[in-house]
Amino acid sequence: MRPIQMVDTKSQYLKIKTEVDAAIQEVLDSAGYINGKPVQEFTVHLNTYQNCKNTIPCANGTDALQIAMMALDLQPGDEVITPSFTYIATTEVVALLKLKPVFVEVDPKTFCIDPQSIRKAITPRTKAIVPVHLYGHAAPMEEIMKIAAEFGLYVIEDNAQAIGCDYTFSDGTKKKTGTIGTIGTTSFYPSKNLGAYGDGGAIFTNDDTLAVKIKMIANHGQQKRYYHEMVGCNSRLDSIQAAVLNIKLRELDHYNAARQKVAETYNRAFATNEKIITPFVAPYSNHVYHQYTLVLNGSNRDGLNAYLSEHNIPSMIYYPVPGHRQKMFASFGLPEYDLKVTDWLTERVISLPVHTEMDEEQLTYITGHVLNYIK
Question: Which uninterrupted H or E stretch holds 350?
């Protein structure tokens, strides 16, 4: 049996090696390392895939979030509502801009932000909501957008883990996650469903005026070289990464389908074990399984984690410490949060390997050991 990895980017690369190597060589031959032809092509292709009016590439997903908040002119002290149960980048950016993070609860089934918790957290200082499409499942965007419209709030979608996910509205229309809110953001970190061979990110918006501003902020606050109209930053997707992403974007739907097939195998294997709660998929979303995350109810999560490691099966805990309990926010004067669902999940979630290159032998080995431990 091949060694099991959480993400096998090397085997994935070998399948597209000829195309990737040629594309990288073309960049080297052209010496157009920054904002070269591959960047322009990838921007168009990703924009078409997302069916979005404007796509702006940038250096990474964290930059994408920061630039989005800068473009909305959020000011120090403005409140930004976000789930506590997410990767720290989502709220780290809030802190960097001296905004005030307001942590709210998530749905225990989808792991995504709970609309009722959003409503309860709104104050006169609230300016934005940042829903996270966690693990590859969409947040309940239709309800979130209704709340935002009611209170005049911006919505910034953190789509770093769900590129390619479809959201279905109550009237049957569909949109890609990342294109529903005021602004959407994503990451092309190598382990993502659409991963580069380095860092990268992108910002989406259907607002043309905002798009102009986002482009300026990502390019030192300038439209015309050396004429800086606002404070910006330097956040660019380089041409080599764009060349790789151009090739991998063509495969994204196949990659997501492969992940879904892995998830189906896991789901079947664990279906009758009452101590294992497999991922839930809401009627409004499909699931692209950036992570395959179980909730253990009545079994020792940390014990399983150690047991799998002993048998050369990688597993991860996303995330052991929620945002509202991170030391980095101690100086923000935040209230004592009572987020029972979030705290419950952090003690029980565990993610198993899921990627495009998994085979039946590996999956049988993994599921067999999980079920051997959880009886």
Answer: strand 349-352
